[in-house]
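Lecture 7, part 2: worked example. A protein chain together with KG4.
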Amino acid sequence: MKILGFETSCDETAASVVENGTTVHSSIIATSKETFSASGGVIPEQAARMQVESIVPVLHQALDNSGLTCSDVDAIATTKGPGLMGSLLVGATAARVVSSLWKKPLIGVHHTLGHLSSTWLGQAERCAFPCITLSVSGGHSDIWYRTSHTKGICIGKTQDDAAGEAFDKGASLLGLSYPGGPAIAAAAEGGDPHAYPFPSPLKGDSTLNFSFSGLKTALKYTLRDMKSDPRIADITASYQHALCMHLTDQLVQAISQYPEVKQVHIVGGVSANLYLRSLVAERCSIPVITPLLIAYCTDNAAMIASAAFFIHQESGIKAYEAFETSASNVLL
Ligand code: KG4
Ligand code: ZN
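Predicted complex, written out as structure tokens:
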């Protein structure tokens, strides 16, 4: 089953053709991130306007690169939410138009479910259930216990900022560009992760939840109280270390609570972080699966087409109804 997917929830405009949830025939991503590098974050109106400019060229390129035609495509998928309303509307409108012109069914995909499927892209043979998935992006930070693609429970979540948001806000305090995650990771190269002490969030709390706002505040006060300019490599390395230790502390706890789990997956924009990957590999006792390409960590449409296939496989015709009726459908 070949699915053409769209993802336009924030500042990426993406289209992709994926077969059976795993074989990627094409994956095109246009981004307006550079526009926001100095502003510290995305300006929703501007992101939506750039979605409108990019959506048709991205669709054409995704089809051209796949070597397929509309008659080869079995279904259309799009991110139905959550995300920026204007941006989401562009992808949903494009998906609806293509679906009705080509007479193909339309499957709406929750953005997080897309990220959860991203480890299956190009390496399905390595992935198995039950698994624990740490899903960390600019909009959410969750730990999932999953028994299938569409069945699972959220066993931990952030109480305030998302992990990616903590990177973005930290970068802004340090005068680094948006998005903050890659900027902090680059600045931290060669730095001492123990040079500046940061508190451990939720110390003594027995849940698997996260809290990042205290780390951001600690960074703010550390910078305020400094007698001289900070050593950028050391302070970014220390801040990155504190964020990644908190993520891995909760992950290690989760693994110990679910001994039947055989592998841990990390997905979402923050899973591109190499320091996080090395800490997870070092501290978790079971195999760690990350998306095959860094481009599958951050927002992309291949993960949406993949999730749509698995939704269809596990719930059949209900997958199409879900687009209209799901409670998490913030859009239509
Ligand atoms: O999944 P994503 O592309 O979009 C959302 O669904 O939010 O994640 C974007 C987030 C941003 O906060 C960005 O700073 C973070 O992922 N990010 C990283 C890295 N690359 C992207 N965080 C840490 N290290 C990275 N290398
Ligand atoms: Zn995302």
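The first strand starts at residue 2 and ends at 7. Residues 232-257 form the longest helix (26 residues). Keep this in mind for problem set question 3.
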